[in-house]
Structure formats: C-alpha cells, structure tokens
Design brief:
Elements (H helix, E strand, L loop, with lengths): L1 H13 L13 H8 L4 E5 L11 H9 L3 E5 L9 E5 L5 H14 L4 E7 L2 H18 L3 E7 L3 H8 L5 E4 L10 H7 L4 E4 L1
Parallel strand pairs: 1-2, 3-4, 3-6, 4-5, 6-7
Antiparallel strand pairs: 2-7
Helix pairs in contact: 2-3, 6-7
C-alpha cells in the first residue's frame, strides 16, 4: 500500500498516467508481459531467499525485458549526484539524456562514468559527454574508467544517487549485468 501511495503522489506531481498491480507467486512471465506495454517497470531488488541476492524476477526482467526498468533496494532514496554509465552502446546517448533529466528534476549534479575498452575510446567518449553537459547546461563531472570490473563500478557509485546504465552486457566486457545490479546499492535505471 505504501508503494502504491508513493507512486500515486509522484505521478500526480509530475502529471503522468500510471497503474499499479501487486502479483504474488511465480510472476516473472506476468511482469515481463506487462513490461511490454509499459514505459517503465519498477522492481524491488531482493527476492525472498535469505541469500540477499538479486531476486529471480529481477534477473528475468534484466535479461529478457523490453522497456526501461528501475530496480530499487528497500529504503533507497533518490539522491544526487545522478550517475550515467556512458559507453559505445547504441543506447549511450539515451542513458546520458535520461540521467541529465533526472539530475535536472532533483536540482542536482550529474556524474558521467565513461566505460571504455581503451584510452583512445575513453578520451573520445569523455569529449562527447563533456560537450553534451555543456550544451544541455547540466552541472556535472566526467570520469573515464578503462575496462573496469563490476566491483570497481559498484564501489565507484557507492553513496551516489541513481545509476542510469544501458541494459546490455557489452560494456561490462566479461562481467555479468545482473551481478553489477546485485552489487550496486543505488537505485539502478536500466535503459533499452
């Protein structure tokens, strides 16, 4: 009931339409089907197991979902700076635009973490991201990480605000996207 009230208040404040459903049991397929029609699906991070690992429904949506998904840890706050994981993916610009919009909404700053396979690509992406921030008028910082592992990424964003990232494996090189979401305590917005 708390989540429904919070969603209703936020939707009213921003003037957006919304719907809220509670499902129990094996719901991954039902949520996946619902996500096909939704602009955004919001999921709790943990399953019911005692392992404190990412729940199976969240894993299912990360690997098979079609729209944007926001994964929240219990008690998480949407603070700043907003973090954008910027790379060479086809959704990189959408990630940057979405993160900048969130930062604007929170009257906050944006931290752009360029994730690159090498220094040359990192430098090019750094320039593109910095130019975007300048043109958009968003206060922020751009940092480059060359082939970071998920532990480094999770550590880097710790204590910051929501992390906006492309919902694909390629920018993680050999690591697993679900494991990155599992290790990250911040709210995570996956962009497709």
């Amino acid at each position: 009931e708390e989540m429904r009230k919070a969603l209703a208040a936020a939707a009213e404040r921003w003037g957006v339409t919304w719907s809220f459903r509670v499902s129990r049991g094996p719901v991954a397929t039902e949520i996946l089907t619902a996500s096909m029609e939704a602009d955004l699906v919001i999921l709790g991070k943990r399953g019911w197991s005692l392992s404190r690992r990412l729940g199976s429904t969240v894993r299912f949506i990360i690997t098979r979902g079609k729209g944007m998904a926001l994964v929240l840890q219990e008690g998480a706050k949407l603070k700043v700076p907003v973090v954008a994981i910027y790379n060479t993916s086809e959704n990189a610009d959408k990630v940057l635009q979405t993160a900048a919009t969130l930062a604007d909404m929170k009257d906050g700053t944006l931290m752009v973490l360029v994730v690159a396979p090498d220094a040359e690509t990192g430098s090019e992406l750094h320039g593109r991201a910095a130019e975007y921030l300048k043109i958009r008028g968003v206060e922020g910082r751009v940092s480059v990480l060359i082939k970071p592992g998920i532990a480094l990424l999770a550590h880097t964003v710790h204590g910051m605000g929501p992390v906006v990232l492309p919902c694909e494996q390629t920018f993680l090189f050999s690591d697993d996207l679900c494991e990155l979401v599992n290790l990250t305590e911040n709210p995570v917005l996956l962009i497709r």
